[in-house]
Amino acid sequence: MEAIHRAKGFEKIVEPIRLTPESKFVFQCYPGVPCFKLCCSELHLPLTPYDIIRIRDYLKLGTEEFLILYTEPFILPKSSLPIVRLKMRDDKDKTCPFLGDGGCNIYEVRPLACRYYPLGFGLFRNRDEKRNEEFYYLVKEGFCQGLDSGEEMTVEKYRYSQGIPPLEEPIFEWAEIIMKKESLGPVEVPEKSLELFFMVSSNPERFRTFVFESKFLDIFEVPQDTLEKIKTDDLSLLQFGFRWLKTILFGEDLVKKRKEVPSIRKAKPF
Predict the structure, then answer these.
(1) Whether 22 and 108 share a structural domain
(2) Alpha carbons within 13 A on the beta-carbon side of 186
(3) Is residue 210 included in any domain, yes or no?
(4) Residues 207 and 168 in one domain
(5) Handedness of CA 124, 251, 81, 95 (dihedral sign)
(6) pTM over 0.90, yes/no
(7) pLDDT in tens, 160-183
(8) Which CA distances in Å does 229 have to 6, 149, 256?
C-alpha cells in the first residue's frame, strides 16, 4: 500500500477497507503502552466548530484569544474550504500544545479527531437513495503498539466509549456543507463565501456580532425565540449559522429572506 506520509520513521497507512458500525477491531491506549504520546506530535488536526467552543470554555479563554494562541488557518484539501487546526509547539518534535508529561492536559474536551483515533471517519452522499452515508476506516501507524492488542470491540462501541456521538450531532450540518462542496469538485469559490464560512466555523463571537450589529436582521427573518437563544447560547448559534450557510451557499430555503432588503454586497452561492 502507498504510504500517506512518514511518521516517526515509520509508515502511516490507511487500510482500504470500509468499516461499518458493526465492524470489529482491536485497540488499546493507556500510559503503560510503550508508544504512549507518540501520536501527539506533527499533527494536522482539524478542529470542528464544537471543538473550538468546548476547548475555549475549558481553558476559560475568549474565542479570539484561543484562536491566536492555539490554532492556525487550514484549507481542507478536497473542499478547499477554510477551517482551523491545532497549532503545534515550536519544538523539535512539533508536539501538540496540550501534551503534558502525563498525557493530554485537556483530555476531558479533547478534539473529535483525537477521540476517533485510530479510526478515520467519512461522510458521502448516496445520490441514488438520496441520503447521507457514514463510513469508517482504520489508520495504522508504524509506531503504534496499541493496535492488535486489548479488547475486541465494534466501531460503534468504540465511538460510544470515546463520547463521540454527542459531539458529532451538533456539527452534522457543518459536515454536510463540506461534503456538498466536495461533491461539486474544483469549482471556484467566491472570496466572500469563504469568509462567511470561516467566520461561522471558527468564531461564534464574531458571528454573533455580525448577526446583531450589521444589517443581517434587516435582510433575514429570524423568529424571536431563535434570536433569544442565539444571543447567549453558542451551540444554538452554531446550529443557526449552519442553516444560514446552507441558505446563502446552496440556495436552501432554511433562513427566510425579507421581501424588501437593503442594498448589500451579496455572497455568491457555490
Answers:
(1) yes
(2) 1
(3) yes
(4) no
(5) negative
(6) no
(7) 999 999 999 999 999 999 999 988
(8) 46, 46, 18
